[in-house]
Task: structure prediction
Amino acid sequence: MSAPTYDKLTAPTAGTRVTLGSDGKWNIPDDPIVVLIRGDGIGADVNNVPGITTCAVNVLDAAVKKAYGGKKSIHWFDAHAGDVARSLYNPGITDDQVKALDENGQRQVYLPDDTLKAFDYYKVGLKGPLTTPIGGGFRSINVYLRFRFDLYSCVRPVKYFQGIDAPNRNANKVDMCIFRENTEDVYCGIEFKSGSDRAKKLVAFLREMGYGADVLLDSAGIGIKPISPERSKRLIRMAIQYAIDKKCPSVTLCHKGNIMKFTEGAFKDWGYELAKAEFRDQIVTEDEVYTNHGGKAPAGKIVIKDRIADSMFQQIQLRPDEYSVIATPNLNGDYLSDAVAALTGGIGLAAGANIGDQSAMFEATHGTAPKYTGQNRANPGAVLLSGVLLLEFLGWFEAAKLVSDGVEAVFAEADETAKKGPGGKLHVTYDIARQFPGYSEKDGVSSSGFADRIIEKINKA
Result:
């Protein structure tokens, strides 16, 4: 594949692209080029004031330098999406003109071909928060990227950090990673508006199939929920492999199969089927634990179990330490990942990744918080921890650990300082500072100040 040409982007003059071998395994150079979309709102740099993405990148670069002494480095390739892209590629376009465009036209305004070509070629990216586009055709930049590049696994690790004001008393037991299927379920967007010709045709067809007005009104809007064995199994395969690599104790299949038997119930069945067929020597099912092993999992075996979705929301609050890796269809995963993040203090520190067999994009899961744009105030933690996932994807675990430990050390330091009473110096952003008794948001440091403190911890490690 030859390097693309661009309209308004300039590719790095140094660095090597990440590639896939004929065996399907990633070839990671010591100087990978990574596409960087800094984002909108708090993600963007404004008048030389750094956004949270720049702050996160500075920490990641420092960790790589510390871990490898200059023998490895990331070469960042700035690309654009969201409002930044709209301003750069279509500076005079109005909201009304955007709304008048078809779906692909809206996509080009907010997600230019330049950016798609860059990500297609370089395969790996880090992304800050982006504005949701105006207009009814193009639904979401994130959703488009997932489908365009078949980023079928949304990976959301959530853990508790000492010093974070978490609402649940069991928050310190939370250390989970949720694998949410990205390409099926209701997120496919197969919908038919109430009263439309298509909806009427579908209602008529379903009448022929025997579904009467007791379950389906003529006026109903209709959505279709496809879940396939192929796409379910590849998601569950990735989750189990992650559990093996990380030496996690269990993988839980979260579903609503008691009601949706042929979609979510099938997801559960396909999960057990795959686990037994491909990982038999490394797994044991929960039923087997009780029938064959006296209720105690054999040493070194990963327990494969399942939970109904509504019950799962109770389980993560009451017994979060019983769940380490969760695999689930799309909509469940959307709800569940935010709910688990809430247990530990909210999505401000929720990392995310969208990973497929050909590409991987790492991203913060929160929004753009436009009222804080250009103020150097927001917490860069979610982008930074998404960068940790990027480092782990590259196989640079030493650098990833330096970042994670640095973040944890700064939060713990603030907690210890605050316990001594008001007046101490906190090196955390306003959202963390204001949670401590006797402190307010004015006692926090800037985004870059927080990042600099993490870098100090990294360099002293």
User: Anything to note?
Assistant: The CA atoms of residues 15 and 31 lie 5 Å apart. The chain has a mean pLDDT of 93.
